[in-house]
Design a protein that fits this description.
Blueprint: H1 3-7, H2 11-30, E1 36-40, H3 44-50, H4 55-76, E2 80-84, H5 95-112, H6 118-122, E3 124-129, H7 137-150, E4 156-161, H8 166-182, H9 193-198, E5 210-213, E6 233-236, H10 246-275
Parallel strand pairs: 1-2, 1-5, 2-4, 3-4, 5-6
Helix pairs in contact: 2-10, 3-4, 4-5, 5-7
This protein binds farnesyl diphosphate (FPP) and magnesium ion.
Farnesyl diphosphate (FPP) binds near residues 62, 104, 105 and 160.
């Protein structure tokens, strides 16, 4: 066991961590809070390799990390969280790994919709974005159950991208628009950025404010390409996803919140000067 994990087993240390987290959260809630954040949860296999664990255990540790981060997101008031849980490209990985990821998705989806678990506690509506046709039937059943059971929750949204790529999202949107155009449900002249956006998987979500990728790799890997517009902050973090602790995300939130507060103040000053 790593020394930091060992220290955390002491109740007094746990109490101290919980107390400092509580204070940190209160500070975060006083500033502007992003509406929509997204995560590329990268580094699960490297985490497993370094600790001599099975790949499946690395992904399970990744889910535990996700659960902690989601808890923090919804506690500070973030409305939408979008996570890259499975890329269409991931089907090229060894069958044993693909099967393990499918099994984690199936069991964890059923777990988070339990009474008193994450979805219930924070009023989260779960949505699974991507190509349904590529998902095995037993996983699809769990997806349908979790989305159906949480569809009336209105406080927050969890978008699980699975199996997803941005280019497929854009192509799917285009295909729907062309079909509607062929059926004369819309005029080709009305096709613009807004219309494309209205046909994407993230259609009813607020604009993306922050995109985080862990593991030190600095690329988007076909995730949220359309959604990471000019006002979206992209943060590359040099730690593996299972080691991405809430305080790390807290410091990203604090930085974002400070920069937004400065922006708002500047806008207010400009407006006041115009009124003089
Ligand atoms: C990327 O790390 C991670 C994935 C491909 C899977 C992420 C999935 C989870 C954390 C489980 C979440 C499940 C649900 C249902 C939300 P990697 O495998 O590329 O690791 P590496 O970069 O070290 O090779
Ligand atoms: Mg990776």
């Amino acid at each position: 066991m790593a020394i930091t994990s060992w220290i955390r087993t002491f109740p007094l240390v746990q109490y101290f961590i919980a107390w400092t987290q509580e204070i940190f959260m209160s500070v975060l809630k006083t500033g502007p809070v992003p509406q929509h954040v997204a995560f590329v949860m990268d580094g699960n296999r490297r985490f497993a390799r370094r600790r001599k664990l099975e790949v499946r255990e690395g992904h399970s540790a990744g889910f535990e990390s996700l659960a902690h981060i989601l808890e923090m997101c919804y506690q500070v008031g973030i409305k939408v969280v979008t996570v890259y849980a499975f890329s269409i490209e991931n089907f090229k990985r060894p069958t044993v790994e693909v099967d393990a990821l499918m099994e984690i998705a199936r069991t964890k989806l059923l777990q988070i919709i339990h009474h008193g678990d994450l979805a219930d506690r924070f009023g989260i509506s779960i949505r699974v974005l991507g190509q349904r046709s590529m998902i095995p039937p037993d996983v699809l059943a769990a997806i349908d159950k979790s989305t159906e059971m949480t569809k009336r929750n209105t406080t927050a949204i969890l978008n699980i991208c699975f199996p997803y790529t941005s280019r497929d999202d854009i192509a799917t949107s285009m295909r729907e628009i062309v079909t509607k155009s062929e059926k004369h449900e819309l005029e080709p002249e009305t096709i613009d950025e807004r219309l494309l956006e209205q046909h994407m998987f993230t259609k009813d979500c607020p604009p993306l404010d922050i995109l985080v990728r862990t593991s030190g790799v600095e690329r988007l890997s076909d995730f949220m390409l359309w959604q990471s517009h000019q006002n979206c902050t992209v943060e590359f973090v040099n730690c593996l996803w299972p080691e991405f602790e809430p305080w790390r995300f807290g410091s990203i939130l604090l930085k974002w919140s400070r920069s937004k507060a400065v922006e708002f103040r500047k806008m207010e000053m400009e407006r006041d000067q115009k009124q003089l």
